[in-house]
Amino acid sequence: MKILYINSLYAPDIRGGAEISLKLLVEGMQSRGIEVRVLSMVPDGDLSVSTVDGVSVYRAGLHNRYWPYSPKHQPNYQRLLWHVKDRDNRDMARNVHEVIKREKPDIVSCHNLAGWSIAVWDVIRQHNIPIVQVLHDLYLLCPNSNMFKNDIPCKGICMECKVLRLHHGKKSSQVDAVVGISQSILDKFTAEGYFPNATSYVIHNTRSIASPGLPKTRVAGSPLRIGYLGTLSKIKGVEWLIETVKNLSFPTQLSIAGKGKTAYEEHLTALSLDHDYINFIGYVKPSELFEQIDVLVVPSLWEEPLGMVAIEALAHHVPVIANKAGGLKETVKEGINGLFCAAERPKSLAEALQKLYENTGYYNQLSAQARNSVASILDRDRMLDAYQEVITSTLEKHLLETP
């Protein structure tokens, strides 16, 4: 059996959780004796192939107006033109055709398709190869991948997205199996009529995280050490967190790990002036941050597809306070490993923090239960078994339906 994996990026070019999870999946499948190949993008150049940690990886130069992962800000008209071409990018589809001709995979597993576009589905179908689509974000519904506009989460598909995604739902009928990394993200697509002919699955991503030792304990009256880890952007709710901590009536320390666009970082720094208990620490290893904090806050204003950062914190015995939205509802459990707040009720974040500060026994209970609450998600074989079942079942179904 040979599987071709298609994603926008691949290691060592890792920009987010999708790339980390895909690398674990690809290498895990190869370790089980399955042939794997990866097709990803680079800013420019002809189709090339190299080996990354024993895996054959093809990379194709992007044919569009600019490289979307550059820190350079593009004017609105350029972004619109980029998205117009990205509706159905036939220039990129030719690379998929070439790799399929060379490798002759039995099945293709598509992941993030930004830059590739849904043109890849047509090419794969032309070769009569079954398709598995894995949903890591909302790209197939929203060009920005997050359904967040004018600093607020979208209640539905806006007119611009409807135009730029006009044929995506219909084209999705070519997909044989669809995997959501959470039930929440899968439901988003099925509610819009996507993947009508596909068998649906939910498979949570995983991380390999060794036990960090004993759970954390708090002593009454000690400052509550709060942490944030992730991109510094409006959509992540960092401003909500900073303003909340500034107005708390008990001693705290806030460590903010991550980077963002320079202008926004400067804006956040200005919000925190004269508050020496708020520290921006830039890029750090997650384990280093988790050693320094009592609680992780995930105040995302959009519906996180899964919220892997919450899982990583819980694996380190760190309770989580999260905005009750998206995939976070499937990993954070109220009263078991953390607490929920609600973006529509901003004071709820302060209330949750105060509860952990005042009730050390409650905090210690959450910490003691945190890692065990995500033990099944941390099981790499669980994820590999589930994906192998998807691949096997999809291939069997395809063979039965092929004349």
Automatic annotation (TrEMBL):
InterPro entries: Glyco_trans_1, Glyco_trans_4-like_N. Residues 16-205 form the Glycosyltransferase subfamily 4-like N-terminal domain. Pfam families: Glyco_transf_4 (PF13439), Glycos_transf_1 (PF00534). Gene3D superfamilies: Glycogen Phosphorylase B. Keywords: Transferase. SUPFAM superfamilies: UDP-Glycosyltransferase/glycogen phosphorylase. Residues 221-372 form the Glycosyl transferase family domain. GO terms for molecular function: glycosyltransferase activity. CDD domains: GT4_ExpE7-like. This is Group 1 glycosyl transferase. The lineage of its organism: Bacteria, Pseudomonadati, Bacteroidota, Cytophagia, Cytophagales.
